[in-house]
């Protein structure tokens, strides 16, 4: 009985004394390292170069062109964000709605044209598989995206291809 009490006391002392060593310093938002937009862009370029597995010569050609491409896309997207409707949806007239739709489609068309322009430039230095990776839709929120069955399948993703049922990529769920 005494050995049990002694053992428990020693264990409790060890746990309490080691507790401080395991505690982590909580970082406040001001202590976290904040990157400038240029640093973020540089990291994105490096990440894409690694993803495409470029050699040094190709990487030297790729980096400035990719940076130019990112800046062109950023310019297109800032134009899209600038003009947001100030009125409530119920207060707009049919003509205003139609005008806003046409403006939005024109801006989206500009983004597509920019991508097509840079596709022609990237074709000179990258192969088809690398182009596919480069122009694939960015997946910032992977856990929010459904997968190949997205339009037909309303079920929660459970497996690797985004569908709760085991399908081959490209196949869709029955409705």
Q: Key features?
A:
175 residues; mainly alpha; signal; DUF4890 domain-containing protein
Model description:
With 175 residues, the chain is mainly α. It has a domain at 36-85 and 92-136. 57% of the residues lie in helices and 0% in strands. It contains five helices and no strands. Helix 2 packs across helix 3 (56-82) and helix 3 packs antiparallel against helix 4 (94-122). The protein starts with a helix and ends in a 41-residue tail after the last helix. The model is unreliable at 141-152 (pLDDT under 50). This is DUF4890 domain-containing protein. It comes from Phocaeicola coprophilus. Residues 1-23 form the signal peptide. Keywords: Signal.
Mean pLDDT: 77
The tally of beta strands, per DSSP, is 0
Q: What string gives the helices and strands in order?
A: HHHHH
| Poorly predicted spans | 141-152
Number of helices: 5
Protein name: DUF4890 domain-containing protein
Signal peptide: 1-23
Keywords: Signal
């Amino acid at each position: 009985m005494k050995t049990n009490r002694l053992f428990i006391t020693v264990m409790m002392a060890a746990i309490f004394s080691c507790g401080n060593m395991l505690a982590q310093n909580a970082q406040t938002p001001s202590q976290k390292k904040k990157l400038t937009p240029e640093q973020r862009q540089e990291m994105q370029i490096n990440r894409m170069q690694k993803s495409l597995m470029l050699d040094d010569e190709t990487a030297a050609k790729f980096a400035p062109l990719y940076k130019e491409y990112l800046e062109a896309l950023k310019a297109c997207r800032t134009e899209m964000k600038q003009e947001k409707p100030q009125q409530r949806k119920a207060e707009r007239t049919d003509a205003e709605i139609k005008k806003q739709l046409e403006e939005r489609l024109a801006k989206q068309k500009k983004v597509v044209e920019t991508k097509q322009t840079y596709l022609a430039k990237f074709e000179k230095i990258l192969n088809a598989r690398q182009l596919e990776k480069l122009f694939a839709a960015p997946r910032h929120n992977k856990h929010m995206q459904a997968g190949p069955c997205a339009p037909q399948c309303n079920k929660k993703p459970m497996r690797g291809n985004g569908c709760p049922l085991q399908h081959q990529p490209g196949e869709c769920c029955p409705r």
